[in-house]
Structures are given as C-alpha cells and as structure tokens.
C-alpha cells in the first residue's frame, strides 16, 4: 500500500511516499480503508522526536493520528463492527499511521462515523475531539457555571473545546487573531481576546480551568488567571510525574519528567492551584458519545483546507505555519 513515512527523527523533516506492507490484522482489529485523515501538531512533534523518550517509534514509520473510512475486514474476536461500516478513530499510540491507504485498528478505539458528516469532516474530529473530552469531561469534570480559559480558540482543539465547554454550561474565554474573532464568537466564546492587540493576563482573573496549548511563557502567564484551587491542564507540555506513572515509565524517565515540569509545578503550588499534563489516548466509547453530540448539532467541525493524499507533506507544512483556522484534512481519491 502507499503511505507517507518518517525515515528518521528530524526537526522539519520531509515525509517520503513509499510502498509499505499491508497492515497485519490482529484478532480484535478492524481493517479500515482510509478515506480521509487530518494533520495535527502532534504529527510534527512525533516526527521531530519530541516525544521519543516516552513514545518511541522505530523508523521508517507511518505518521498520522486521525482516520475516517470503511471497514473492509474484521478479526475473529471483533463483535462491534462489520464489513462496510463507516467508522472514525484515533488509533492508539504505537499503532498510529493514518497517512496511508489502510490501517488496522483495535476495535476498542473505533466508533461509527457521525451520520451527518462527510468522510473529510469526520476525519478532522477524533484527536481533537478526544483531547477536549478528556480534558473537560474526564479530567476537569467541568460543571455548569464554571469559567474556562481555552487558548488558541481557532485551532483544532480550541474549536472543539469551546463548543463542548459551552454545552457543559461553562463561561468560555479564548484567544485568537483578529481575523478569527467572529469565528470563535460563533462557536460560543463569551470572552474573546485578540492576542495581537490584548494581553489575556491583564483581562482574565478568577478562572476555574485553563487549557494550555501554547509555549512555556504562555503557560506561566496562564497560572495567574486562575483562582485558588483552580486547575491548568496542558496539552503541550511539560509532562508531569502523574503522566509518567500512568505510562509505567522506568525510574530514570520518571526523574527526567519530574525535572521537566518541576518549575511550573512549584509555581502552581505557590499560587494554590494545580498543574496537570494530558496526552490524549484512543477511546472508541468517547468517540461514540462525541458522534451523538455532532449528530444532534451541539458540535460542528471546522475544516480550513483539504489536501489530496499525494500532497500530505504540503498539508503538514501548512499546519506548521500556524495559520490554519480549524483542521487541515487529507483526502483519498476513492
């Protein structure tokens, strides 16, 4: 099958179009013919080697973390899906590789595609949808009336998180550029800060939750907008000791990760707030719940551009410019 592979860890490295073996189907796997995938900042970070300490891949490996497509085969222990089902998924770590024609995915990671979405729209959802769900619902347990600051509201996670937080009854503040102010307002943001003209730390205060997706400087500033007892959840790092524990890392890596997050954890503690790092995980049941919200009109996808499969490298480069408003999708010619 055709696939785009990473030949070696390299910052801003190029992807190579290659002929790769067809995926091996395990007993509890479904084989999906990929119709659409999308590009995420995580793809760049994996290619660059930022996560190789705790999320190693052996080159050459296929990149890509989102998929929408059709089930073409099922393993003998699969009970939830059948050949012909239209599905979407974020394959679990160590089994990613959606920049390809086919992928084998554990059935626990898969859900039926939202009926009201095209393949391209559905392919834009899994990673950002699961990230927002696991931050807001699972970890923060966001309650009606609480205040949440979601950075980068016109990014993939931001667009989804704003809509989900509003559905949960929260007051939402976000940052965006001038050109995207109306977009994030249309998604439900209550307080919109144009980061080209305003400084969020001078405007926001008394927040219950911050979703940090930016750099260390922005993370440090974000701590100051939380009220005592508040929580900042970072999806861009640094990882914390609890994360290392969940992954079952060895003592050396646990120490490294403890040191990486020591500064922000110390500052958070001094302010009476909590710091947590989240790297989303595959979860088919959560994707099913997300599909229900999409089908009921609570959440809508926002797609910035759609690239053909042969231009996957260009799609990744476009995401890396940081100019996309919404998701960047790659589609197959089927």
UniProtKB/TrEMBL annotation:
Pfam families to which the protein is assigned, alphabetical: ADH_N (PF08240), ADH_zinc_N_2 (PF13602)
SMART domains: PKS_ER
Matches recorded under InterPro entries: ADH-like_N, ER, GroES-like_sf, NAD(P)-bd_dom_sf, YIM1/Zinc_Alcohol_DH_Fams
Gene3D superfamilies reported for this sequence: Medium-chain alcohol dehydrogenases, catalytic domain, NAD(P)-binding Rossmann-like Domain
Domain spans labelled Enoyl reductase (ER): 13-330
CDD domains, per database record: MDR_like_2
GO molecular function: oxidoreductase activity
Coiled-coil zones: none
Protein name: NADPH:quinone reductase-like Zn-dependent oxidoreductase
